[in-house]
Amino acid sequence: MNSTLKKIIIPLLLVVMLPAISYSVYELTSLNETEEMIEEIYVNQLNTVLNSINQYSDLVTAAWTSSLSVALENHQYDLTKLSMNELEPFLNLNRSIVQIVFVDNLDFQKYNLINTGSETGVEELKNIFQSNIEKIERLYRYIEGGYRKIEPLESDNEKTQFLTVIISDERQQVITILEINISTYIQETLRPVILEAAGEEFAIYCISNSDEYKFNFDETVDGKQPDVKSPLWLFPKYELGILLKGRTLSGLIAERTYTNLIIIIIMNLIIVTGVVIIYRTIRKEIKLAQIKSDFVSNVSHELRTPLALISMFAETLEMGRVRSEEKRNEYYQIISQESNRLSRIVNSILSFSKIEAGKRTYNFSLTDINKIVKQIYDNYKFHLENEGFKFIFEAEDNLPEINADSEALSEAIINLIDNAAKYSNDTKEIMLKTYQKNQNVILEVIDKGIGISKDDKEKIFDKFFRVSTGLVHNTKGTGLGLTIVKHVIDAHDAEIELDSKVNEGSTFRIFFKSVKT
Ligand code: ADP
C-alpha cells in the first residue's frame, strides 16, 4: 500500500469502521442484558394483569361484606334473627355462596347457619373454625385497629373455599363465614373479568395446585405452559396462569434476539462493503493519477527523442558538412522517419482525446479487409525489414466484405503492428493473417515477442496502462495504443481476443462480422 493510500485508508477505518465495530460489540454484549430487561418488564406486565383479577375479587368480597353488614345492622346484630328469606336476593345474585354462617364469638356457641346447598355440616364447620382460630383472632385484632379484612380459611376441600370476615359496629362483632363454590365463582364471577383482561393476545386460566381442577377459557392454548403464574388470593389452593397466544414468551424473546443479531450483521456487512467500495475507488483514482503523471513523462520523452534527432540531423545538413550524397539521403530518411514518429504520437493523443470527449465519429462503408491490410503491409514492409523483421502477410482470398471505417481500422492495425515490433526481442517476426470462420472475417496480428502475462492481459486495453517490468520499461510508449484499438474495434461491433505467452509471443485476433452480399 503506498503512503497516499495509507493516509486515506487509516482515517477512513478509524472514522467508519471503529465506531461501527465498537457499537456492534457493545450491542452484542448488551443484547442479552436488554433481552433480560425486556423479559422482566414483560413479566411485570403479565403480573399486573393477574393482579387486576385478584383485585377484582377483593372488590367482590368487599361488596359481599357490605351487604351482609347492612343485613346485620337491620337486626341490631342479633344474628339469630337473620333469615334465609331476607338474604335470598343477595344469594341469588351471588350463586357461588353456598352457605353463610354467623358466629357470635370464638366459642362457636351461638350461631346462625344459612345453607343454600352446601354439604358441609356444623361439626365440620366447627373443626375448620378451630383449626383456623389463630387467623380469626388476628382478624379480631385488625378490627380493633379499625381494619376489616376477609381471609380464606385452610381446609382439605379443593372444591369449596371458606372465607371469614368479622362484621362489627361500635358495640358488637359477628364472625361471618362464607362457603364458596369455587367452580361457580370462577365460571360466573371471574370469567368475564378474565376474558376482558386476556384480550386477543393472551390466555388466562385458573388451576388447582393438585392440577385436578382447571378452568380454561381458551381451547387454543390447551396443554401449553404459562409464561407467568400468580396465586389466586381468594383461593390459596388455586393459581392463575397467563400465556401469550400463538407463541411463547421465550420464543418471542429469542425471535427478537435473532432479529437484532441479523440487523447487526447486515449493518456491519453494509459498512464493510461500503468501506471496500470506497477503498477500491480511492485506490483506482490514486493509480489513475499515478498513471496520468507517468503518461505525461512518457509522452515528453517520446516527443523529445525524435525532436532531438530531427534537429541534430537538420542542423548537420544545414551547415553543409555532409559531403556524400548517400549520407545526406540517410539523414533525410532519419528526419522523415522521426517526423512520422512524431506525428503518430501526436495523432494517437488527438485520437484518444476525441474518444475521451465522445467526439470520435466513424464513416462506415463496405470494405475488403485484405485491401486495407495489404496497403499497410506494403507501407511498413520496407521499414520493418530494415529493422531486421521477417514481415509476412498471409491472406485468404475472396473474403466477404465487412462494414468498416478504413481510416480508423488502419490506425488500429498500425497500432497493433507497432506494438508487435516494439515488444519483440531477438525473434523478430511479425505475421498478418486474414481468413474466414463461420460468419466472421478474422484478422490476426502475430508476433514472437516478449508476450503478456495472464494478470496483465485484462488490463492492457485500459487507458494509460503499460506493463511495468522488463522490456516495456525500456520501451517508450503512451499507454494509449490499445485503448484506441479497443475503441475502434467496439465501434465496428467486432471482438478482440488475445492469445499470449510470456517470452513466446502474442496473437491479437479481431473478429469482424461479415456482410452478406
Ligand atoms: P504503449 O504505448 O505502452 O505501447 P499500448 O496501449 O499500445 O501502449 O499497450 C499497452 C501495454 O500492453 C504495453 O505497454 C505493453 O506492456 C503491452 N503490449 C501491447 N502489445 C504488446 C505485444 N504485442 N507484446 C507484448 N506486450 C504488449
Give a quick rundown of the structure.
This protein has helices at 3-74, 84-93, 122-131, 133-144, 182-198, 249-318, 325-356, 369-386, 406-422, 454-457, 471-474, 481-491; strands spanning 97-103, 111-115, 151-153, 160-168, 173-181, 202-208, 214-216, 228-231, 238-244, 365-367, 390-395, 402-404, 429-437, 440-447, 495-501, 505-513. The chain has 517 residues and is an alpha+beta fold. Helix 1 (3-74) runs antiparallel to helix 5 and helix 7 crosses helix 12 (481-491).
> Total strand count, please?
16
Q: How would the global form be characterised?
A: rod-shaped
Which ions and ligands are bound to the chains? adenosine-5'-diphosphate
Strand order of the largest sheet: 2-1-5-4-3
Count of DSSP helices?
12
Radius of gyration: 52 Å
Q: What CATH architecture label of the largest domain applies?
A: 2-Layer Sandwich
Strand percent estimate: 15-25%
Q: What number of domains? A: 2
Secondary-structure element pattern, one letter each: HHEEHHEEEHEEEEHHEHEEHEEHHHEE
Reading off the top of the CATH hierarchy, the class of the largest domain is best stated as Alpha Beta
CATH topology category name of the largest domain: Beta-Lactamase
Main β-sheet description: 5 strands, antiparallel
Beginning-to-end CA distance, first to last residue? 57 Å
Briefly note the structural class of the backbone: alpha+beta
User: Mean pLDDT, rounded to whole units?
Assistant: 89
Binned, the helix content reads 40-55%
Unreliable runs: none
